[in-house]
Design brief:
- The chain is mainly alpha-helical.
- It folds into 2 domains: 126 residues, no CATH class; 187 residues, Intergrase catalytic core (hpI Integrase, Chain A, Orthogonal Bundle), CATH 1.10.443.10.
- The chain is 57% helix and 7% strand.
- Helix 10 runs antiparallel to helix 12.
- One of its GO terms (molecular function) is DNA binding.
- Keywords: DNA recombination.
- This is Tyr recombinase domain-containing protein.
- It comes from Streblomastix strix.
Length: 329
């Protein structure tokens, strides 16, 4: 398709520019891998720029002699706006093409100058996320439902079982669903479970979250992880964490999201609340129960908390905060 061809051309151009700087193929691939899933968007936007550049009668070699990248980007964005590109597309193009010049060695002030900022005012304003107060449901609603489900685990279908397991993990770790989806686990002594994942939002780093048995086992992640693995056959023990024994395949992100939504709706959480609302409700309950801002930042890995605190003060062992969450009204 035209879209895939455009993306391929964008990736070729990106790799060609790095090769001109003597980057090896391995080094170039590692640069790309650093963007994770976002790279698929970047390559498309670079592909759009490549079309614009070559249709202007210029070659790839001409990119290496550009002295004023701000003008090049401004002309490209202005052309995109003139053909009624969406505001989101204009923002994505500015980001991707700015990055293309950064890898050539240009400094930020040479790329994102006053004129380009003026051009980008309308697209940025149109796509800026509106901040508003959101009604957050009480986490107890969800935890009480999970507690009730624990009494009839044997009668739950696979998707309900999955939804309860993930909801419990999210409530007591404040991990995002994407982070839970790409995680793995290891069972330690004394029914302690370690969940290993990687954080791609903000600072990229690997993370290990340690779950210990809580005073209320029915809502505890250790209970639900034991139960989830109990659904497997012996030959499936080494399969990925979200392996579905019945269908013999790994759960997709979308399947995990649907499973959690089923549990949320069954517990009485109003439709319209996202899976992320579990994370928000968990943080809100911790605040209501008197957790300090330092405890909240460490437990949620919130960006407002200094990264030195997050890294050096054992952010994984938030047992006190988790134990408070098991106390229902």
């Amino acid at each position: 398709t035209r879209s895939s061809i455009r993306g391929d051309r964008g990736e070729e151009l990106f790799k060609w520019i790095l090769s001109k700087r003597q980057f090896t193929d391995d080094a170039t691939q590692q640069v790309i891998d650093g963007w994770h899933s976002i790279w698929s968007r970047h390559r498309q936007r670079i592909g759009e720029f490549e079309e614009f550049w070559t249709k202007s009668g210029k070659s790839w070699e001409d990119l290496t002699t550009v002295k004023d990248p701000e003008t090049v980007i401004s002309n490209f964005i202005a052309q995109q706006i003139s053909v009624h590109a969406t505001n989101a597309n204009s923002n994505a193009c500015r980001t991707a093409i700015g990055m293309l010049f950064r890898i050539q060695g240009f400094q930020e002030e040479k790329i994102n100058g006053f004129a380009l900022k003026q051009i980008m005012k309308k697209p940025l304003a149109a796509t800026r996320k509106k901040r508003k107060e959101e009604p957050i449901y009480k986490l107890d609603i969800l935890l009480k439902h999970i507690q009730e489900r624990a009494d009839i685990k044997q009668r739950l279908n696979e998707q309900e079982h999955l939804g309860c397991t993930i909801s419990s993990i999210m409530a007591f770790s404040t991990l995002r669903l994407a982070e839970i989806h790409r995680s793995s686990v290891a069972k330690m002594e004394d029914n302690v479970w370690q969940l290993n994942t990687s954080i791609w939002k903000g600072d990229n780093y690997d993370l290990t979250v340690t779950f210990r048995p809580l005073s209320n086992p029915k809502v505890c992640p250790t209970t639900w992880l034991n139960s989830w693995f109990g659904l497997r056959r012996e030959e499936d023990r080494d399969k990925p964490l979200w392996w579905r024994p019945k269908n013999k395949k790994v759960s997709s992100y979308e399947y995990l999201s649907k499973a959690v939504h089923i549990i949320m709706q069954a517990s009485g959480v109003k439709k319209g609340n996202s899976v992320t609302s579990i994370r928000k409700s968990s943080i809100t309950k911790s605040i209501d129960q008197g957790a300090t801002i330092q405890e909240i930042n460490r437990a949620s890995r919130h960006k407002d908390g200094p990264s030195t605190v997050a890294v050096h003060y054992d952010m994984n062992l938030n047992d006190t905060v988790r134990e408070r969450l098991t106390n229902f009204e």
